[in-house]
Amino acid sequence: MVVDARDSRVSPRAESGSLRNHVGPGEHSAGVTEQDVADRLGGQLIRLMRAIGRTKSHIAKYGPDGLERLAYSVLFCLVHDGPQRTGKLADTLHIETSTISRQTRSLVAHGLVERRADPVDGRACVLAPTAEGVRVFEENRRNRNRWLAEVMAEWPADERARLTDLLELLVSGIEESTAEKSTATAESN
């Protein structure tokens, strides 16, 4: 089977049932350029975002507890990174502070997040997950992980691990690039 590197519809598992037959890092099939690889990756990322969007629309905008899905992103940051101020959350999630404030009001009303005095500046407050917030976060994480395990159930373990490693590498590269551009923009202003 000849695969056009720009065809984002072709599954790498199509004939072989394995990712192993694909060209490795730093290698290219005859005539395939870095731009071709970047174009194919871009197409796959768009497909991934669309698939995630469809999954989210099946779940609906609101979770079973009435929280908007965005509130779970706020809760994730607080559980994962610890208590923090609203401004830091807005920067982390790349969302307006007013949106974070609305989400945190909902999380506080549901008893998942609490406001505490900032240990550095007692006049300010930080947001922190409650025990119930951690429980809800863990339940959602287990559900997500169960779903991902089902999606990849037929994949060999080494391919699941490889995908995870490559995604970590990609996300780290994107984060570094974004941070460098943000720093350069801030310095030019």
TrEMBL record:
<keyword id="KW-0804">Transcription</keyword>
<dbReference type="GO" id="GO:0003677">
    <property type="term" value="F:DNA binding"/>
</dbReference>
<protein>
    <submittedName>
        <fullName>Putative HTH-type transcriptional regulator</fullName>
    </submittedName>
</protein>
<keyword id="KW-0805">Transcription regulation</keyword>
<dbReference type="InterPro" id="IPR036390">
    <property type="entry name" value="WH_DNA-bd_sf"/>
</dbReference>
<feature type="domain" description="HTH marR-type">
    <location>
        <begin position="38"/>
        <end position="172"/>
    </location>
</feature>
<dbReference type="InterPro" id="IPR023187">
    <property type="entry name" value="Tscrpt_reg_MarR-type_CS"/>
</dbReference>
<dbReference type="Pfam" id="PF01047">
    <property type="entry name" value="MarR"/>
</dbReference>
<dbReference type="InterPro" id="IPR052526">
    <property type="entry name" value="HTH-type_Bedaq_tolerance"/>
</dbReference>
<dbReference type="InterPro" id="IPR000835">
    <property type="entry name" value="HTH_MarR-typ"/>
</dbReference>
<dbReference type="InterPro" id="IPR036388">
    <property type="entry name" value="WH-like_DNA-bd_sf"/>
</dbReference>
<feature type="compositionally biased region" description="Basic and acidic residues">
    <location>
        <begin position="1"/>
        <end position="12"/>
    </location>
</feature>
<feature type="region of interest" description="Disordered">
    <location>
        <begin position="1"/>
        <end position="33"/>
    </location>
</feature>
<keyword id="KW-0238">DNA-binding</keyword>
<dbReference type="GO" id="GO:0003700">
    <property type="term" value="F:DNA-binding transcription factor activity"/>
</dbReference>
